[in-house]
């Protein structure tokens, strides 16, 4: 089995309700997203899948979050758009968008900063 990972980015703002710290105030992040897919085998050219196709799938999902106020996004109604919630949302949406590809989504990691990340996978 092969794991293929693409790195993508988006910028967005949010605030965290019921949080006893600075993140309760409106602030933004330049999110870094690592999306990992699994390929069981290789095609005739030696690829599990073309990275360009994987990036296109991810970008199609992330464009709906880029430069948005996440608290107002319908996907996060009634919940804080934390890195945990974002990673689960992205896993579901990217998984749907990649359903026709010959790879399977394995994990989505969302970095709020260079040193803080959450990874979601369904194992």
Q: What does the model show?
A:
The chain is an alpha+beta fold and about 120 residues long. It has a domain at about 30-35 and about 50-123: 6-pyruvoyl tetrahydropterin synthase/QueD (Tetrahydropterin Synthase, Chain A, 2-Layer Sandwich), CATH 3.30.479.10. Helix content is about 20%, strand content about 35%. The protein has helices spanning about 50-60, 85-95, and strands spanning about 1-15, 25-40, 70, 105-115, 115-120. β4 and β5 (about 115-120) form a beta hairpin. The chain is elongated and about 55 Å long. It starts with a strand and ends with a strand. The mean pLDDT is about 95.
Brief overview:
The chain has helices at residues 51-62, 83-97, and strands at residues 2-14, 27-39, 68-69, 104-113, 116-120. With 123 residues, it is an alpha+beta fold.
* Topology-level CATH name of the domain at 29-34 and 48-123: Tetrahydropterin Synthase, Chain A
Task: Give the helices and strands as they follow along the chain.
Answer: EEHEHEE
Just name the CATH architecture of the domain at 29-34 and 48-123: 2-Layer Sandwich
Tell me the CATH superfamily of the domain at 29-34 and 48-123: 6-pyruvoyl tetrahydropterin synthase/QueD
Q: Give the termini distance in whole angstroms.
A: 16 Å
Q: How are strands sequenced across the largest beta sheet? A: 3-1-2-4-5
Derived from helix and strand composition plus strand pairing, the structural class reads: alpha+beta
| DSSP strand content | 25-35%
Would you state the CATH class of the domain at 29-34 and 48-123?
Alpha Beta
Query: Which regions contain 5 or more consecutive residues with pLDDT less than 50?
Result: none
**Net shape:** elongated
Radius of gyration: 15 Å
Q: What fraction, in percent, of the residue positions are helical? A: 10-25%
| SS elements, strand count | 5
Main sheet overview: 5 strands, mixed
Kindly state the mean pLDDT as a whole number?
A: 96
